[in-house]
Amino acid sequence: MNNQPATRDTAKAVARFDITQRLVAKLHHEEAVIGGIGHTNFDLWAAGRRPQNFYMLGSMGLAIPIALGVAIAQPQRKVIALEGDGSLLMMLGCLATVGARQPKNLIMVIMDNGAYEITGGQTTASAQGTDLAAVARATGIANANWAADEAHFETLIDKALATPGPHLIAARLTSAKPAGQTERDPAQIRDRFMRGLGTKR
Amino acid sequence: MTTQDGPAWAHAMYDALRAQGVTQIAYVPDAGHRVMIDRSLADPEVHSIPLTTEEEGVALLAGADLGGARGVLLMQSSGVGNCINMLSLTNGARFPLLTIVSMRGDFGEGNPWQFPMGKATQAVLEAMGVIVLRAEAPDDVLPTIQAASTMAFQSGEAVAVLLSQRLLGAKKF
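Above: the input entities. Below: the structure tokens describing the complete assembly.
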């Protein structure tokens, strides 16, 4: 198996908070991170406050399109979208937009727990056959991979931070609860992020 | 078509937005936006961004603002319906938004399927806190765009400019 690319079926289920911490620990160049709605951004919040983090309290499916706008505006900065499987399924077309455009500084991390966890754990289509990394590859995002385990996740993040993208890294998750809950002030979240990027006018 | 073709008001609109510093032009195509789209594709200093659906554009413009850039979203009135829930992002985090909407289902429309959204466009935008300005004639366009871009980029408001079919001409389909 070690010589074969991981698939959703062979990928080890990893804990979202753990891999979010591993990701954040690698960010040393004021990379921008857009945390998608739900437990995805709760664990980004819990992994440590960074001014360059934008936390979404709503607007399911828009983490990647927001990140694309930042990536186009800030071509020298790596921009990372963290998005859940349920959210991405709502806005699958955004992968086609990214595939067509090929933004070199965009990294997408898909947190796939196969469920709408925050609403009670109802099954998503990704648990029933939709392979989101394969969907991404089909749009022309060649660097779209499943993380086989925690160490492989780190390897994929290192590569994504060091090489031109777009990159998509999909992680299959356990059903662990989030480690915190994000603050509730969207205007302040925007303001802090813009100060973190130096774009506040 | 060359970038010289099309109505003068459309070229004036493009030039005015560029003068305001707009560098991201995102769209779901519509014939009413043909000049804007072609000019953006021919402009090396502009990112011309086709979308699969208009909601992506609401998010993209938020991202542009976060990254210190100015953008505009071009869509048909049908697309306004797609955006409504996503305008919570704009409203809640107080993002500026400038969208230019080419109308269907208003003056002279011959397709009954277009009327429900055409009649609802202004009301649903206003229900989500978006300021709506209308352009009905060629001479309206430039001052309306200039006003809207000031309201969006200087005051941080969400503003939609509706281009009436009285201006664009009703479609045959």
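Note for the figure: The mean pLDDT of chain A is 96.
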